[in-house]
Amino acid sequence: KRKALEKYFSRMNDQQRKAVFKIKGPLLILAGAGSGKTTVLVNRIANMIYFGNAYNTEQTYGTPSEQDIQFLKDYIDGKTNDASTLADIVAYDCIKPWSILAITFTNKAAGELKERLAGMLGEAGQGITAATFHSACARILRRECDKLGFSSSFTIYDSDDSQRTVKSILRELGISEKMFPPRTILSEISHAKDLLQEPDEYIASAAGDYRNLTIGKVYKHYQKKLKAANAMDFDDMICHTVKLFEQFPDVLDHYQNLYKYIMVDEYQDTNKAQFRLVSLLSQKYNNLCVVGDDDQSIYKFRGATIENILNFEEQFDCNADTDVIKLEQNYRSTQNILNCANQLISNNQGRKGKNLWTASGDGEKVTVYKASSERSEAKFVADTILEDINKGRKYNDHAILYRMNAQSNALEQTFIQSGIPYKIIGGLKFYDRKEIKDILAYLSVINNHFDFLRLRRIINEPKRGIGEATVNALEQITSDLGDSPIHIMQEADMLAPLVKRSKQLMPVGDMLSELTELSDTLPLAELLDKLLDMTGYKRHLEMQGDEGLTRLENINELKSTMSSYEENADEPSLSGFLEEISLYTDVDNLDSDADYVVLMTMHSAKGLEFPIVFMVGMEDNIFPSSRSLESEADTEEERRLAYVAVTRAKEKLYLTHAEERMLYGRTDRNRISRFIKELPADCIEKQAEETKASPYLNGYEKPHSMSLQQQLAQRKADKSNFSVNTETFAPGDRVLHKIFGEGTVLSSKPMANDTLVEIAFDNRGTKKIMANYTKIKKI
Ligand code: ATP
Ligand code: MG
Does residue 36 line the site of ligand 1, with CB under 6 A? Predict the structure, then answer.
């Protein structure tokens, strides 16, 4: 019988199978990337639900009949779909789906886990809790939070809410925001929560230090305020659940009895609070299985402690037989990719050494591509993807990984121009970000004084004490008088319905009208700088600490877009720029296929895999990031991140770097990433962009020593020797596209130096494409 059961898991290697069948007691699976850790979790759950009873607790509960086993076999093989029979069998299985709690790290990973479980178990899997730490805790708290003095309708505060709360506390306590930026305080509070430190403990440990005492005081008020508002922040989810379990043994007992089997994926990234939570829940039955990889620990900055994994054996062997299973065979990647990963991570000091190997062969070499600029890097990625599509690949075989969100901008633009559908995972598309929308709204209002919709968006952003009622009144008068709202704001003191708020409105009207004048003379990038200053938007972001700085970086990245627009357009203008941008913001209509290229940060790629992976921006100061180069420990964490990224690739890996990169609105020349230098030479092949392709870069020595305007002028001058022949397209023209084949032109619109053509392709649906960009020919 044992053999018959194990057959279902015959794909598993010996070590994996051992893990699949070890259901009772603590279990640590410690293994490298792609060795099947998550696969084991899924199979282990399947085993528990189908056979856990039969195999593990035969004596106590009885076993399924041969007939049932045959049915299960057919069900797994897809020969039958009769879920009702399945339900009968599950009904007398001892491990109920709802007694299983599987925790992973990101929403995306939890989603995939659920999908894989549904694929393997169908309806039988319903009721398994597969969740992130936060969502698992939120679920418990909704039911139990009255014991902690909350009502079950509590609100979950996002970081914006938290920040506003801290600000109001600072105001009440008379503490200066300059000395104690809310964002800094919040990250201190968050850190304290990772360590399960209550405000009083925090204050006690401050040992009289003024700064820490002050933060402790704010922390204490913050918790009080949240409670009064019946609200919890993200970290509270976990801390409050721990508190609940510690203070109410009967509640803990209830959940211990409910979740008898607990599994945690990506255990290397748990922090102290999460560790405590898992320990409490599993204390009674000890059925805790954690899987992880010390080489993939990438959240130290959020309090993750690798000790959790390294000390697992000591922590859990108290009264049960702990097992540690190591997996060495990698099933994901080719040997060339693995050699790169192995060699790279061997440069780290503090690690339990291990080497990944695969039986699947060397595969293609890893391609290192040198581009001249961030745009040609993006173009290389886009062209490679289109060639793959031509060979029968799908878009979603491809993933683009970068270190920082702002890097997505150049890629997004190129994808849009090439008609490549894409999706950003774990983040917003560049033009969907709040700060980008705000700034574009400002520019739109300056460009068109009658754009009331956009005015509404920014009139009180940053806060200027202009409320909804005032804006409504303004809109009414605007439409009654047929005058521009900006002009009306400037005259607010003479208009009865606005007089009360004229102090707030008039400066905004004056400012917008002044900016309008400036927009006639200033280059776009300088206009943007002025706008950021005059509106107070920049100051507003600077007060928000790290998050504000990230937003500011995104806005600077918008400057890169402006510069390349000015460089390309014949007669650059604000309205021309906004028109071009409207193409990018319209991107969702571009392609409704579910098949798309995915873009994400390396952090959010953890646990995922793709046939073809591009790691872009492989330059020192980008990756490894400039900040991480300051300390060896941080560089090591960055190297683990590189290891994570490299091991996402199944078949083909590209590492790209640019000689010169415009990011955040400034141009830099960075050295090739030290991580590329650490790769074994015989596993990589080097390619470089033919310099012919961008003649304007020749003789271009030190771009960063020039001002942005000088650079633009130079690039533009160089470019005029390299003008493009623009073919004209009219609706009804038949055209041929290298990749998408033949189609009929629906519309065409000149834009910058190119033409935006909408084409109904015979076999690929309707797409909007830049004509010169991908070389469309009339036939
Ligand atoms: P990571 O550390 O990146 O999270 P992992 O250890 O969780 O990786 P999985 O995602 O479970 O690895 O597996 C990697 C790939 O290997 C998956 O495509 C999976 O289907 C495949 N795989 C796992 N085990 C086997 C096996 N025994 N035989 C064939 N393929 C396997
Ligand atoms: Mg995994």
Answer: yes
Please give the distance, rounded to the nearest whole angstrom, from the Cα atom of residue 293 to the centre of ligand 2. Answer: 9
Q: What is the Å distance from ligand 2's center to 32 Cα?
A: 9
Is 650 near ligand 1, meaning CB less than 6 Å away? no
Tell whether residue 31 is among the known ligand binding residues: yes
Contact 366, 683 (CB under 8 A): yes
Rounded Cα distance, 137 and 239, in Å:
9
Distance 359 CA to ligand 1 centre (A): 13
297 is in an annotated binding site: no
What is d(CA 46, CA 50) in angstroms, rounded to the nearest whole number?
A: 6
**Which pTM does this prediction carry?**
0.75
* Residue 432: CB atoms within 10 Å: 13
Catalytic residue among 15, 296, 407, 417: 296
pLDDT at site 12:
81
End-to-end Cα spacing for the chain: 68
Tell whether 125 is in a known binding site.
Answer: no
Calpha distance 549→581 (Å, rounded) = 23
- For residue 521, pLDDT beyond 70: yes
Please indicate whether residue 266 is annotated as part of the active site. yes
Rounded to whole angstroms, how far apart are CA atoms 652 and 728? 39
SS3 737: strand
ipTM of predicted assembly, 2 dp: 0.99
pLDDT at 61: 39
Q: Based on the residue annotation, tell me whether 650 is a catalytic residue of this protein.
A: no
Is a pLDDT exceeding 90 seen at residue 185?
yes
SS3 content of the chain, % helix, strand, coil (to 5): 55, 15, 30
pLDDT for the residue 116: 85
Could you tell me which of 683, 678, 681 has the C-alpha nearest to residue 348? Answer: 678
